[in-house]
Amino acid sequence: MEALRVLNNNVVLARDERGQEVILTGRGIGFSSQQGKPIDPALIVRVFVPADGRDPDHLAEVFALIGEEVLRAVVIALEEVGIEGRESTRPTLAIAVADHVAGALDRAKRGIVVEYPLRAETQALYGTEYAQAQSLLAAINERVDPRLDPSEATALALHLVNAGFASGDLSFTYTMTGVIQQMLAVVREQYGLDVAQESLSAARFITHVRYLFVRIQQHRQLKGHESTIGKGIRQHYPEATGTAQKLATIVELRLGERLSDDEISYLALHMARMTMEADADAA
Predict the structure, then answer these.
(1) What is the CATH number of the domain that holds 268?
(2) Which of 108, 227, 230, 264 has the smallest C-beta neighbourhood within 10 Å, fewest atoms?
């Protein structure tokens, strides 16, 4: 790779073999690199490939603002626990996690412990990310001083969830979490069920809604090509369709986005599955 710009001792903007601009991190990589010259591969710890039209130069500058030890701890920890490989197309994840860790370390040094209000929701709705966050926190704590409080796993999990969106901040993830909780509350009230969030059907519903949120943000709702299937679902499950329409109203009120008929149909299908599973468990 060829160095384009040295940001600091640990961050270099470079051009790879395919001609695209990438961000390289590694201890001392900037100190040993010169503009227009090849970079020693042995110094490269992580390669970030900006995607979604993000400006590589700007992202490199943001990386350069993060403290050396914090950036190193986060970059190595992300790879160690298997969240990110050596090459990443999600540089904003590393930036967000490193920025959070820097703030958390500052609070820890001052003896401040934050109790995150979404802890229970995060554990229930995003079990996979929460488990990854706990492993990530443990890996980070092996490399920082003072060690971060276990409660920080909640914030890290939300950053992992947020990595699936293009917004770059957590506001959309916070909104999504609240909407999912509101949806489950409607299901419980509608059917008089305490829908266990660890049940298979509820897990499928939560996963479906998360991808629905991605489609909404990207303005790519399901419509048209699935209309025949969607119509069949609505006809076969009228009660579940009524509930799904209530859920669609919640989404429209909270996000300002009206759901297509096909999106409502698939919500209805998940409603039907949840109630059938609950009925089977009760039998």
Answers:
(1) 1.10.1790.10
(2) 227
CA angle 140, 125, 203 (to 5 degrees): 125
Q: In terms of pTM, does the model score above 0.85? A: no
Same domain, yes or no, for 228 and 278? yes
Domain range for 8: 1-65
Report which residue type is found at 268.
Answer: A
- What pLDDT, in 10s, does the model give residues 66-105? 998 999 999 999 999 999 888 888 888 999 999 999 999 9
pLDDT in tens, 216-242: 888 888 876 556 778 888 889 999 999
Q: Residue 278 contacts by C-beta under 8 Å, 6 or more apart in sequence?
A: 191, 193, 195
Residues 78 and 46 in one domain: no
Separation in Å, CA 243 to CA 78, 203, 254, 255, 262: 40, 18, 17, 18, 14
The answer on 155 and 77 residing in a single domain is yes
